[in-house]
Specification:
single chain, 698 residues, Rossmann fold, globular, binds iron/sulfur cluster
């Protein structure tokens, strides 16, 4: 039930990043006010600029309020819900009959609630029978997930509460810039000496005791150099390594080849700084190592995260009270979004599509034969790349994503979408991807519906409806239900009420790697802080208390021990050369979020970050004839983006930085390539070889 018109307040969480700051909403549509909750331990009364202005998206002037169907004239025109849904279901049936079940694909998002993620995965595998489902989190958390699962047996971004960071003496941040991406987190870092690894002197790096500024694509070599120094300086916690890990000998042998001078030569970071960093970490009573997208979005991203995990394990940090290793999940439901079944290879609860027992469990909950469930499908980029091709999907349903902007090799992805027989987008604003769709379905957004999300610390949180959706708008769950029924499913199989979906999700996740079975809306609404795993049937009458801290006694592998991974440095897929002499790297800015579909509709955020810029060192700008404030073209072997020059000494002279939130010709991903991490299938967003020229001159 919404609080609209009642004068009541609604306690909920921010629609954007994985910190999931707690907020209180009041007021009616058009005048919704937001304030931070003072008692939520993560944001403690703080919000960033995006959180303060989030209600503006609820009243976006171009909010979608009716389905749109592309007519014979090629234009999108308003249509009724029955007309639009009948059209989609009919075309899906035709395409499946002609090309098979895998000719229909689904693309989800890391901002969708757990209930939507769960239903989307079930819809794909049961109602459509397709293996072709993945989501935009593949571009975000997949490398961290792959490395963490391999090392610890579980993938939870932070295996401890955010508040544990308050007590740290030293924190190493590798490729993370929370001062811009999740500013309230900085309150938890202010008591520690920060070691920041980043090719840019970011706002986070400015607050560091030590800033290591490696060449793009060399974080793995840097981690190997740090581990070498931990070994040679006698900082390895041998007792911990012997008792709690396996595989150190092979890793030690490999890192011994990374003497400091070699690490300096490859990374450009002085050996003395590497030595200082490892002494800070090794000498601290409580220390953490945290990675972010800067270390993860590479064709060797999972190996890079593994190298930082190796360092953390050698120093005895993971699973030690007050210390640890973690990854800073990005999207609002980046954690739950990768647990509840929209990944190409996973079923709810992080169960595996390749595991017969996992398939049987989920099939029983869904009331289907396990043999009818498809196997793993293509990863996000591979799926987008295959669209409309001879062997690829002919229809695509997009929920909670805008892949035309944040996918690598964006011009190619746009062409693939245009080649489809049936592109369908469910969104609340006319995104760049919706503009390419044949059918657009207007759906409700964060403050208009109930649900849960899981924050970066594995805590399950309630999102609450403050407003009823505008007339003409339906929820994603209603849309999936209506399509499933039209595709022959019984109405009861796809519930539309979020609490009902959550009850089913609990059963599907029971006994899985991400076990939510002991969590309920009632417990969350009573204010309990529940971090998964939280199994049902344990913990007595009060229920299981949840698990804020993982790994204190044992890791999640059957023998209870963490795994070292023998990884080694390799160069990025593209390196600067005579034609493309600079590194191009991409990332986020404070005032925008992801593809910008939401934040580019908020006047205050547009005023703060109105357009794409290319950050370039003044010496480099002089070399290439570029002037501050003028337009430039950033070109690679894959394509060319256009952005306004911003001179700054925060970037290395061999590197330019372009934020990826902006559409059209300003898409940074026009120049990013499609080299993929072999394990995580993460594209290499962080390193391209580029040239930068004054716009129009080349
Ligand atoms: Fe929202 Fe993240 Fe900003 Fe908090 S830090 S207000 S969750 S965008």
């Amino acid at each position: 039930m919404s609080a609209e018109g009642t004068g009541r307040q609604s306690s909920t969480h921010c629609p954007y990043c994985a910190l999931q700051c707690s907020t209180v909403l009041s007021g009616e549509r058009g005048a919704v006010a937001v304030r931070p909750s003072a008692d939520f331990p993560v944001n403690r009364g703080g919000l960033c600029q995006k959180g303060w202005t989030a209600p503006a998206v609820l009243s976006a002037p171009d909010r979608l309020l009716t389905p749109l169907v592309r007519g014979a004239d090629g234009e999108l025109a308003p249509a009724g819900w029955d007309e639009a849904l009948d059209l989609v279901a009919g075309r899906l049936r035709e395409i499946r009959a002609r090309h098979g079940a895998d000719a229909v694909a689904v693309f989800g998002g890391g901002g969708l609630t757990n209930e939507k993620v769960y239903t989307l995965g079930k819809f794909a595998r049961v109602a459509l029978g397709t293996s072709q489902i993945d989501y935009n989190g593949r571009f975000c958390m997949s490398s961290a997930a792959a490395a963490s699962t391999a090392a610890f047996g579980l993938d939870r971004g932070l295996p401890f509460p955010v508040t544990d960071l308050d007590e740290a003496d030293v924190i190493l941040l590798a490729g993370a810039n929370p001062a811009e991406t999740m500013p309230p987190l900085m309150r938890h870092l202010q008591g520690a000496d920060l070691v920041v690894v980043d090719p840019r002197r970011t706002r986070t790096a400015e607050r560091a005791a030590l800033h290591l500024q490696p060449a793009p694509g060399t974080d793995l070599a840097l981690a190997l150099g740090l581990l070498h120094l931990a070994v040679t300086e006698g900082l390895v916690d041998q007792e911990y390594v012997d008792a709690r890990t396996v595989g150190f000998d092979a890793v030690r042998e490999r890192c011994l080849a990374w003497w400091p001078e070699r690490a300096e030569e490859v990374t450009g970071v002085p050996a003395a700084d590497l030595r200082a960093a490892v002494r800070m970490l090794g000498g601290a009573r409580r220390a953490h190592i945290l990675t972010g997208r800067g270390a993860e979005q590479h064709s060797k991203g999972s190996d890079t995260v593994a190298a930082f995990i190796n360092l953390a394990l050698a120093l005895g940090l993971p699973g030690r009270a007050g210390s640890g290793f973690g990854t800073l999940t990005g999207q609002g439901n980046g954690q739950g979004g990768r647990e509840m079944g929209q990944k190409a290879d996973q079923l709810p609860g992080c169960r595996l599509l390749t595991d017969p027992a996992d398939r049987a469990h989920v099939a029983a909950v869904w009331g289907v034969d396990a043999g009818t469930l498809p196997g793993p499908g293509r990863s996000a980029y591979e799926l987008l790349d295959a669209l409309g091709g001879a062997e690829g999907p002919r229809a695509l349903l997009v929920f909670g994503a805008n892949p035309v902007v944040p996918a690598p090799r964006a011009a190619h992805v746009t062409q693939r979408l245009e080649a489809l027989d049936l592109p369908v987008v469910a969104d609340f604003v006319p995104s760049e991807t919706a503009a390419l769709a044949d059918v657009v379905l207007p759906v409700a957004q964060w403050a208009e519906e109930e649900g849960t999300v899981t924050s970066l610390e594995g805590r399950v949180l309630r999102r609450r409806a403050h407003l009823t959706p505008p007339p003409g708008v339906r929820t994603d769950l209603q849309v999936l239900h209506a399509l499933a029924v039209r595709l022959g499913q019984s109405p009861g199989r796809f519930p539309v009420r979020p609490p009902e979906v959550f009850e089913e999700l609990r059963r599907a996740s029971a006994g899985g790697r991400a076990d939510y079975s002991g969590i309920s809306y009632a417990r969350l609404d009573a204010g309990e802080a529940l971090h998964w795993p939280c199994p049902a049937g344990s913990g007595g009458d009060a229920g299981h208390p949840g698990t804020p801290r993982l790994f204190l006694d044992r890791f999640a592998h059957p023998d209870g021990r963490a795994r070292f991974a023998p990884v080694d440095h390799r160069p990025p897929a593209q390196e600067p050369d005579g034609t493309f002499p600079l590194y191009g790297t991409t990332g986020r800015v404070l005032a925008q979020y992801q593809s910008g579909a939401q934040t580019r509709r908020v006047p205050e955020l547009v005023a703060a970050a109105p357009e794409a810029v290319v950050e370039i060192h003044p010496d480099t700008a002089r070399r290439f004839g570029l002037a501050d404030g003028r337009l430039a073209e950033i070109g690679s072997a894959h394509g060319t983006a256009r952005a306004r020059v911003r001179l700054t000494r925060t970037v290395r002279a061999d590197t330019v930085f372009v934020p990826f939130h902006f559409p059209g010709a300003a898409r940074a991903n026009l120049f990013t390539g499609h080299a993929l991490d072999p394990r995580s299938r993460m594209p290499e967003f962080k390193v391209s070889a580029v040239h930068v020229t004054p716009a129009g001159e080349r």
